[in-house]
């Protein structure tokens, strides 16, 4: 069956992935493969704008690739590769920077936020980040970029940059990407308050052992008003219940919804049930991950092959771009 177009998405190499990554992005990546030609990129160059050391960059890239593959990214269909393996993206970034007003970059809320976060390392890469991101997208003749509502302005920036480039050089070499709004689930961490994230250490990694998963789940904060087992609880404000709704069978969800409100089930029991269901859900993932982990050269081959496929598209785009710019 003919696919509906090409999808591109990238993520920084953050190492082993957690439930927030899985529910917020990876699951969606896997589903999109049915209808679209997908290009998934581990954006290691973007990571350089914020990392203090590159010591763990390779390992983080490898671990992330392992998780993506184990979760169902199919390298025989989709292109899975590492950003720096296609140096053309740096070239396109430079050309696109020539049609990008400086003020537009300095005005971006994301840049201002980064300046606040790392005032001692306001490097050019931080400022040029949206331009490099645009190059990532358009280099592969992307039709569609899946994003949550909050990221839509970034794609609008990319669309405007493409329009400026095409107008300036009187060409149609670059395609304006369309946004595909996806429902990005906001997954709270085990603290039950903040978004799940590695930096807050409130995450549950997919690759934990079943025992480690139980331990982590037991640390989850529940309904804060429920102090004792004999107190009735409110599942509507409890992150454990939110997770049950994703990973547990409907009958169990219904039972907890009723029993929690009349103190018929304790939080420890409730958490252990969730941990068991989560572990069951992750069984195939863990088996596949272990198989890939045992053959690191296979993972490397997949990334290398993905890089070659991505580069072939990139080189064709750059030939058109250079021609449009009349570069000698
Ligand atoms: Fe949350 Fe379950 Fe405890 Fe109710 S019983 S407060 S749903 S952990």
How many structural units, i.e. domains? Answer: 2
**Element order: H for helix, E for strand:** EHEHHEHHHHEHEHHHHH
Biggest sheet, open or closed, and with what strands and sense? 3 strands, parallel
Helix content, binned percent: 40-55%
Biggest sheet, spatial arrangement of strands = 1-2-3
Provide the β-strand percentage band: 5-15%
Describe this structure as you would to a colleague:
Helices cover 53% and strands 7% of the residues. The chain is mainly α and 328 residues long. The chain has 2 domains: 6-187 and 296-325, 3-Layer(aba) Sandwich (Rossmann fold), CATH 3.40.50.620; 210-289, Tyrosyl-Transfer RNA Synthetase (Orthogonal Bundle). The strands form 2 sheets. It has a 3-stranded parallel β-sheet with strand order 1-2-3. Strands 4-5 form a two-stranded parallel sheet. Helix 8 links the parallel strand 4 and strand 5 (178-181). Helix 3 (57-71) packs across helix 12, helix 4 crosses helix 7 and helix 10 packs across helix 12 (267-293). The longest helix is centred in the C-terminal third of the chain and has 30 residues, at 296-325. The radius of gyration is 22 Å and the shape is elongated. It starts with 5 loop residues before the first strand and ends with a helix. The mean pLDDT is 94. Bound molecules: iron/sulfur cluster.
């Amino acid at each position: 069956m003919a696919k509906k177009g090409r999808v591109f998405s990238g993520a920084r190499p953050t190492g082993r992935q957690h439930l927030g990554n899985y529910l917020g992005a990876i699951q969606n990546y896997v589903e999109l493969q049915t209808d679209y030609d997908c290009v998934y990129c581990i954006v290691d160059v973007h990571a350089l704008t914020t990392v203090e050391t590159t010591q763990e960059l390779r390992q983080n890239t490898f671990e992330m690739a392992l998780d993506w593959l184990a979760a169902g990214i199919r390298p025989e269909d989709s292109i899975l590769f590492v950003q720096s393996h296609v140096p053309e993206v740096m070239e396109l970034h430079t050309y696109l920077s020539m049609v990008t007003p400086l003020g537009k970059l300095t005005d971006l809320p994301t840049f201002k936020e980064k300046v606040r976060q790392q005032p001692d390392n306001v490097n050019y890469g931080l400022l040029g980040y949206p331009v490099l991101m645009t190059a990532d997208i358009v280099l592969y003749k992307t039709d569609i970029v899946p994003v949550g509502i909050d990221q839509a302005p970034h794609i609008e920036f990319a669309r405007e940059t493409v329009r400026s480039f095409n107008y300036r050089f009187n060409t149609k070499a670059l395609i304006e990407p369309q946004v595909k709004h996806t429902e990005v689930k906001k997954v709270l961490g085990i603290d039950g308050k903040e978004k799940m994230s590695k930096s807050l250490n409130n995450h549950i990694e997919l690759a934990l052992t079943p025992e480690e998963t139980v331990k982590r789940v037991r640390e989850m904060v529940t309904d804060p008003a429920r102090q004792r087992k004999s107190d009735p609880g409110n599942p509507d404000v409890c992150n454990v219940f939110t997770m049950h709704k994703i990973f547990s069978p409907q009958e169990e969800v219904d039972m907890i919804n009723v029993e929690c409100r009349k103190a018929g089930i304790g939080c420890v029991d409730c958490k252990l049930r969730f941990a068991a269901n989560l572990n069951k859900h992750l069984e195939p993932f863990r088996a596949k991950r272990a198989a890939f982990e045992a053959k690191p050269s296979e993972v490397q081959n997949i990334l290398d092959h993905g890089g070659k496929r991505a580069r072939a598209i990139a080189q064709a785009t750059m030939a058109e771009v250079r021609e449009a710019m009349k570069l000698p």
